[in-house]
Design goal:
By secondary structure, the chain is of the alpha+beta class. It has two domains: about 120 residues, Cupredoxins -  blue copper proteins (Immunoglobulin-like, Sandwich), CATH 2.60.40; about 45 residues, no CATH class. Helix content is about 15%, strand content about 45%. The strands form two sheets. Strands 2-3-1-5-8 form a five-stranded mixed β-sheet, with no helix packed on it. A five-stranded mixed β-sheet has the order 4-10-9-6-7, covered by helices on one side. A hairpin with a 3-residue loop joins strand 6 and strand 7. The radius of gyration is 19 Å and the shape is elongated. The structure holds copper (II) ion.
């Protein structure tokens, strides 16, 4: 139980950084009440597929030093890639990810996840125990709906960009 509590606190902290708390306060404004952990409601999220690129060059530029092409190996699976050096000395490291990657809902909530492919030509997404694998292409949106019956966590991931393109839905236990 202690570990579960730690997980929830961590999830809330990350969710606050991702703006999920702002969504709750917005609902409070619309309905004139404050959301609580015991409230059951409809929660809708938009989850973008994105990538971070670290872009540099083996040659110095006006705003960066020269950086030699790395002699290192990142985990296989497609989620972390060092792109080949281009013909003018540029190179980059790429990480695929979901944004947001941690979502917090309350047990009993009706949850709508709208996955939107913003970056990357294709992704193959699974929501563990909720949705079998489906594919999505850039510019498309795929919607998964479910009722969060059980407190705990639900993993989601992209099988084309392992091991790091993963996310987690934290379902807080009902308090009443
Ligand atoms: Cu992917």
């Amino acid at each position: 139980m202690e570990n579960l509590n730690k997980g929830i606190i961590l999830g809330l902290t990350i969710a606050a950084a991702a703006g999920v708390i702002a969504t709750i306060s917005l609902e409070g404004q619309i309905f004139g009440q404050t959301s609580t952990a015991s409230a059951t409601s409809q929660k809708t999220f938009y989850i973008a597929t994105v990538h971070l690129d670290g872009i540099t060059s083996i040659y110095p530029g006006s705003d960066h030093p020269s950086e030699p092409y790395p002699n290192s190996t990142l985990p296989s699976g497609g989620g972390l890639v060092i792109k080949k050096i281009d013909n003018i000395g540029g190179w980059k490291v790429r990480q695929y990810m979901f944004a947001p990657s941690v979502i917090v809902v309350n047990q009993g909530d009706q949850v709508t996840l709208n996955f939107v492919d913003v970056q990357g030509p294709e992704h193959m997404i699974t929501v563990d125990g909720i949705s079998p694998q489906f594919d999505i292409h850039r510019g498309e949106m795929r919607t998964v709906t479910f009722t969060a019956n059980n407190a705990g966590t639900i993993d989601f991931w992209c099988s084309m960009h392992e091991p790091n393109m993963r996310g987690e839905i934290v379902v807080l236990p009902r308090t009443t």
